Structures are given as structure tokens and as C-alpha cells.
Amino acid sequence: MLVQSKLPQVGTTIFTVMSQLALEHGAVNLGQGFPDFPMSRELTDLVNQAMRDGFNQYTHMNGLPQLRQALARKAAKLYGCNIDADTDITVTPGGTYAIYTALTTVLQPGDEVIVFEPAYDSYIPNIEINGAKAVRIALEYPSYNIPWEQVRASINSRTRLIMINSPHNPTGAVLSESDIASLRSVVAGTEILLLSDEVYEHLIFDGIAHQSLLRYPDLLARSFVCFSFGKTYHCTGWKLGYCISSPELMKEFRKVHQFNCFTCDTPKQVALATYLENESAYQELGSFIQQKRDYFRQLMAETPFRCIPSHGSYFECYSYGHFSQESDRDFAIRLTRDYGIATIPVSAFYKDGKDDKVLRFCFAKQESTLEKAVEQLRRLS
Ligand code: PMP
Ligand code: GLN
């Protein structure tokens, strides 16, 4: 049976490709972003307890009320944000789903969405499957800053939405207050919406404060802000996240959500509603992961790679153009096959495959894993 593909130019995501290759070659996997250390025992105990206590049926389609209330309290505490747990938050099966749902909620065929590249690989397919057009703007290499004048010049009557992501995957760049000021001035007086991917909100280093759009009521009124529990609690396999927006936008978001997944895993929501009160679990996360970044960077200094400093996320990028002219895909495959270490070629985050000869490494690993990975890279010259 033939179907007309809705995503004719899309293959299998690079994360699956590289994880599969790592498996085939028994390589250390610093490609796909997931921790190899255990999550909190207390949190898994709470899930088990919730199941034993009988919380095993559908919960509210917008998310367990106690969890939404805990999230509203957290947003108020961290970002001074006044959100209503009834109208402004929806729990979703992961951050990726929240992003897809937000885009599907608002995009009409012919709309334009400004997206910065390198871009997390689901963004552009999510835009295009809705019949909209991704207007791609390259972040400035190698700082990966947003070129705001170019953004301003790209705005027209078809511009429906701008996507931002801080801390940024794959580069670890973070937005500053001055970026927020530029964003505000670009959208002022327009009907442009915002989608802010903040799944790495707590994975931010060097004493930098996360510029959540939840801090800015004027911007939140036109935003979908997307989060993931997987990143915050070292449980990427749980696929649970949430979206915060204005009541008007969230009302439409829920119309799409209710006929897609409808409601998410109940026992995990029960557990998270309790565990969220443990503030140190997320407040200490930045320094815990920063130690890993620092250790990885120190190990990598003994290899020929050049560091492009990360200030957040699970990732740090390294360039190699000064010692190899191979394409980043070929190089990543060769490193997996011959050196036993899997990475992600950053060209996968550009629709046109722009290749700056940069690889992304996930450092959210045990020290022994990082040591084992980098040991092999010392052989490169
Ligand atoms: N956005 C970015 C930038 C990510 O790196 C990820 C990866 N996990 C997600 C969204 C999706 O998160 P989830 O696994 O909760 O769908
Ligand atoms: N967010 C993770 C990464 O960037 C992977 C998620 C996925 O495999 N789709 O590596």
C-alpha cells in the first residue's frame, strides 16, 4: 500500500541512528542524551507506593491536580510567576509531545515559524507536518548567539511564531537578559507567538540564572513554555513533561491534547507531586551536572579536539576541523567504529546539513564512562 509521505525528506532521527551504531560496535554512547547513573531511589519508591495505593486509573486529562498545583508553586518560587494550576498547565507525555502539540495548536498552512539552527531535530518536521514553513536562522558560529538584526529582518505578515531553546541543545548556549530584551522588542506590536523549550531549565552552569519566559508575564501571555521531568529527575525513559501557557492559548492546546494522548501516567504524577516539594533535588542539579562538564572538559583537553564551551544542558560541542577534513557524519561513524565512542554530528541539526566540523558529546555520565570514552580519543592526532 502506498502512502504519500507527510515528511518526504525525513529519515530516522540521528539519536536512534547513533545509539544503534554504538550498540553494534559496543561503543561508549556519548551520543543520545541520557544519563547512565541511577535516578532517585526515593522517587522510584514513591511511584511503587502510588501503584500499591491504587493510583492506576486515568487521572485528569490536564494532569493530576496536585501535580499541577505543585508546579504552579514551583514556578512562583523560582520565577516569581503567577500561574493558575487549573487553566495554565497541562501535563504531557514528554517535552517533545508538548512542543508538537503547541505547534499543531496554532499553525495554519502557509504560516512561517522562525527557528534557530542548529535546532533540536524534531522542531522543523513538527512545523512542516502542519503545513507551515520553517524560516531558518543560523546561530552565530562558534558563540551560537542569536543574530537579532537578522531575526528582525525576517519578520513579515506570515510570521506566526518564534522558537527559542535555552539552555540550548546541541550547543549548551544560554540566553541572557539582553536576548530577552531583543526578543521583546522584536515581537512588540505584533501577533507573533513564542515557543520556549526549557527542558534543561535546571541544567545551567557557571552561576548563570535561567532566563525562563515564566519570569516575564508580558511574554508568557504569547508563549508556550515546555518542560521535561526526564531531564530534571534523570529519568528520560519516563517521557513525562508539561507545558505552561496563558489560559487562552492553553484552552486550544488542550483541544488537541485531549484527542491525542488524553492523559498521562498516573502513578508517576502522584509520585512527582510529592517529590516536587523536595527543592534540593532540582536546586542542586546544576552544580552536580556542571561537575561532570568540568571533568569531561578536563579529560578532553588531552585530545586534539577544541572545546566550544557549554553553559547548560547535557552537552558540550567540540570542533575538529583543524585536524581532519572528514564530514562530521563520516567522522562520527569512524569514531564509533574504530575508537569505540559514539557522538552526534552537529550537521544533523541543520536542515541543509551545514557542517562546521563539530561533534556533540553528552557528558551526563558516570566519571568512569567519561574516562573510558576519552581514553580512546587520545589516540587521535
Ligand atoms: N527539547 C530538547 C531541546 C531536548 O533535548 C529534548 C530531549 N529530550 C526534548 C525537548 C524532549 O524531551 P522529552 O524526552 O521529555 O520528550
Ligand atoms: N534529547 C535527546 C538528545 O538530544 C534525545 C531525545 C531523543 O532521542 N529523541 O540527545
Structure commentary:
About 40% of the residues lie in helices and about 15% in strands. Strand 9 and strand 10 (about 315-320) form a beta hairpin. The strands form 3 sheets. The protein has a 7-stranded mixed sheet, sandwiched between helices. The protein has helices at about 15-25, 40-50, 65-80, 95-105, 125-130, 150-155, 175-185, 215-220, 230, 245-260, 265-275, 280-285, 285-300, 330-340, 365-375; strands at about 30, 90, 110-115, 135-140, 160-165, 195, 225-230, 240-245, 305-310, 315-320, 340, 345, 360. Helix 2 packs across helix 11, helix 4 crosses helix 10 (about 245-260) and helix 13 runs parallel beside helix 15. It contains 15 helices and 13 strands. The chain folds into 2 domains: about 15-40 and about 285-375, Aspartate Aminotransferase, domain 1; about 55-280, Aspartate Aminotransferase, domain 2 (3-Layer(aba) Sandwich). The radius of gyration is 21 Å and the shape is globular.
Helix-strand category:
alpha/beta
- Report the strand count: 13
- How confident overall, as mean pLDDT? 97
Output the CATH class name of the largest domain.
Alpha Beta
Shape: globular
Looking at CATH, the homologous superfamily of the largest domain is Type I PLP-dependent aspartate aminotransferase-like (Major domain)
Assigned CATH architecture of the largest domain: 3-Layer(aba) Sandwich
Examine the coordinates and then state which fold CATH places here, giving the name of the CATH topology of the largest domain.
Aspartate Aminotransferase, domain 2
Describe the biggest sheet? 7 strands, mixed
The radius of gyration is 21 Å
What level of helicity do the residues show? 25-40%
What is the terminal separation in angstroms? Answer: 51 Å
Domain module count: 2
The spatial strand order of the largest sheet comes to: 2-8-7-6-5-3-4
- Which small-molecule ligands are present, each listed once? 4'-deoxy-4'-aminopyridoxal-5'-phosphate, glutamine
